[in-house]
Amino acid sequence: MTVAVVPVKSLASSKSRLLPELPRDALQALSLAMLEDLIRALQATPAIETVAVATPDDRVAEHTRSLGAEALHGPDPGLNAAIDAAPGKLGLVDDAPLLIVLGDVPGARPNELQQLFEALDALAPGPAAVLAPSRDGGTSALLRRPHRALPSCFGPQSATKHREAAQELGVPLRELPLDSLAIDLDRAEDLESFLALGEGGDSTRQLLKRLDWPGRAPNSPKVP
């Protein structure tokens, strides 16, 4: 079974770096729209059989299930701990691969997600990983074979941390820059770059249009 896991934090603390630009209710709606786009893209990726979302948030879990994905719902142990606990909760066998994709890349496209698996297949048999970096030095997606091949090092400058972990453990690591995974939506300029791509992330685009982004003033009326 090939599984993709998306870790998503509580809506109450989501997208805090956009608070000067959008009110909290709009940011929560944005997080849910982004998650919907990402789940749809993962479900349309041929190599992926199951999509799961690890979250402590009730609304995120409910939204996940409504989209036909599996919710790993429970207390928040932290980002990396939640990722590393997912294989056990999903009952993955020891040699199963695992794709981790952060929930702030709504523009992810199935054809580019599929390229991660093609790149992994091109590596020699045995433990290996493929990393899709974000443009801010983070890791937007990490495909590991088997799922414990590398530790989860997500957070600031995680691409460097994953590189260092792979080198220390002797695990072949292929970096695969992908346009649709390079932009994680954390700041106003990220939203502008995402919209400029012109494709992918339909729910997110529709929400931003309803919000009249970037013309909408902070703390304006709630999202309809």
Structural features, described:
With 224 residues, the protein is of the alpha/beta class. It has one domain (3-203): Alpha-Beta Complex (Spore Coat Polysaccharide Biosynthesis Protein SpsA, Chain A). The protein is 40% helix and 16% strand. The protein has eight helices and seven strands; from the N terminus they run E-H-E-H-E-H-E-H-E-E-H-E-H-H-H. The chain has a seven-stranded mixed sheet with strand order 3-2-1-4-6-5-7, sandwiched between helices. A hairpin with a 5-residue loop joins strand 5 and strand 6. Helix 1 runs antiparallel to helix 8. It is globular and about 50 Å long. The termini are far apart. The model is unreliable at 216-224 (pLDDT under 50).
Please report the distance between the alpha carbons of the first and last residues. 39 Å
Q: What is the CATH homology-level superfamily? A: Spore Coat Polysaccharide Biosynthesis Protein SpsA, Chain A
Please state how the strands of the largest beta sheet are arranged side by side. 3-2-1-4-6-5-7
The percentage helix is: 25-40%
Structural class, from secondary structure content?
Answer: alpha/beta
The total count of helices amounts to: 8
> What proportion of the residues form beta strands (DSSP E)?
15-25%
Shape: globular
Radius of gyration: 17 Å
Number of strands: 7
Look at the structure and give the CATH class. Answer: Alpha Beta
How many structurally independent domains? 1
Question: What's the mean pLDDT score?
Answer: 92
Give me the strand/helix succession. Answer: EHEHEHEHEEHEHHH
Q: What is the CATH fold-level name?
A: Spore Coat Polysaccharide Biosynthesis Protein SpsA, Chain A
Model regions low in confidence, pLDDT < 50 over at least 5 residues: 216-224
- Largest sheet, if any? 7 strands, mixed
CATH architecture: Alpha-Beta Complex
